[in-house]
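Minutes, project check-in

Agenda point 3 was the complex the collaborators sent over. CS summarized: two entities, 565 residues total, and the question is how they sit relative to each other. Sequences were read into the notes so everyone works from the same version.
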Amino acid sequence: MLELSNVSKRFGGVVATDGVALDVRRGEVHALIGPNGAGKTTLIAQIAGDLSCDSGAIMFEGADVTRAPQHERVRSGLARSYQITSIFRRFSVLDNLALAVQARSGSSFSFWRPVAAEPALANEARALAAQIGLAGREEAGAATLAHGEQRALEVGLALATRPKLVLLDEPLAGMGPEESQAMIALVERVRSEVAVLLVEHDMDAVFRLADRVSVLVSGRVIATGLPAAIRADAGVRKAYLGESAAA
Amino acid sequence: MRRYATAAALVLALAFPLAAPESYYLSFASRIFVYALAATSLNLALGYGGMISFGHAAFVGTGAYVSSIFLAEGVASAWIGWPAAVAAAALAALVIGAVSLRTRGVYFIMITLAFAQMMYFLVNSMKAYGGDEGLTLPARASAGLGVDLGSDAVFYYVALAALACAVYGLHRLAHSRFGRVIQAIRENEARAEAIGFPVYRLKLACFVIAGAAGGLAGVLLASHGKYVNPNVLHWTQSGTLMVMVILGGVGRLWGGAVGATAYLGLEDLVANHRVEWIASVFPNYQQHASLGVGAVLLAIVLFAPQGIAGAFARGRRA
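CS then shared the predicted structure for the full assembly.
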């Protein structure tokens, strides 16, 4: 459903992504791993539309979205979450989620009627809060949430757009073991409905969740395959796994 | 509580012309309403939308000039001149916003300032309409329907109604779908786009609404003094409106109105009410009212960064 060909991005003299080819199939959890600075976050930003492509093409659901603005990609079912939590901090949990629901249901060029008169928005936001484990925290201000709760809301905002493919950029960043398990369980719950492209450093999570794994090193995909094959791949071990095992 | 305070203020405002008919203070109060409307419109863009526009005078000025030009050309009906002036201000906001909103941060501040200054020099060179001397109007526009806009009391009520509509409109807007998104964009623009909002178009719509309301303030401003000159578009005018918003409360419903009242009230107090003990130390202090305004602004920014309206709201909660 997602197909990248020859996608590149350079920042001045630095090549961040360099001719990336990658495909994500319907129904799969596809993990993208690689050492720090490999270009994973840049690639996510290019797929989502935060960053433009210097070359190459991005096809989503058979349509060329290479030049489509980000909000149009979101509307066609391609949403992302951020490695560095990016939520509406002065809004409550419920309002955060209701906003994302509003973004995909109906026009936002409605200037007079109060949002409070649309219980459908709040109801769906409440269901989403329960799904991401924030039931009972709906009225809390987003800024007052604990780190793990903020990460859940971060991912929840992406899921609230009801994507067909969600790009999760290090959802486990900075999480303790318990919070990590809750996040992994969340991905397990939604994977039947939405394909996932998962960037993650936690190898336990990667090998538990992923149907396929791609390895990005210095802006290039050096291998794609089943988790077992990637684990056994000598080049990958040298470039990445051995390194992190030694560290 | 807020509801009662609003109702009380409205009753006082409605009764005021009965207490002080055709006085200096009636005209002064009308002027406050007009500036309150202008500041409220800026607060929509600046406080709610997070767009730090340093060129709001361009829209106030467009409204003032276009409505005055209609009168100068002999079109006396307010029903033609006023909507046309508001539409012109909206159009100016559409064009300026479409270009400016492609920039961020300090560039946005500078480019809106540059546009407003361009328009300032443009009207300065319009010799047919007074150039730098401005345009004196023979009379206020006529509204028909037995409403005599020429009467200061009637004008007072028109300005009050315009302000009341603007504040109520802002209240409705702030709680609408559009208002929620605009405030979300102010909080986190990148994420608003990333959950599927067409951020640029939404900001532009907000900017145009603010510009149109600013245009209405300009119409009333020119009508109030039966005079308009290029200074209405000068950058200091934009700065004054910003100061009013900051004084009153950025992103607060009543921020613009409270700020305009405080600013103009303070200015009037310093200029027209000589305090002997200050005068004995600073003999010319009354010519430097802006110094006093500056000191108050400094105090607000330091001690009540939410503005006067914000400080009241906090006090009530505490």
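Noted in discussion: The longest helix of chain B spans residues 199-225.
Follow-up: revisit at the next meeting once the mutant set is ready.
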